[in-house]
Amino acid sequence: MKITMKRTCYGSPDGVRVDEYKAGESYDIRESLAEIFLKEGWAVKADKAPRQTKNAGAAPENKTATFQTKPKSKKKTPRKRGTHGA
Length: 86
Description:
Layout: E1 2-5, E2 9-11, E3 19-21, E4 26-28, H1 31-40, E5 43-45
Antiparallel strand pairs: 1-4, 1-5, 2-3
């Protein structure tokens, strides 16, 4: 049975090994394990799962933009070094 996981969890498809089933991923697994995931609300049938789109991220920065430079700061006058307690 094809399912899509709603959350990440572990399950044993054959009663021997344990696999991780990741949220948002679709799997074709044995009906007995799929029924547990569905009953617990951890997965939905793949044909009923909402389609996920990848986040493309932010648009690239405009490389032709001009940049303003910071104004030069005034030079600080050096401090006179004193002697402590003299």
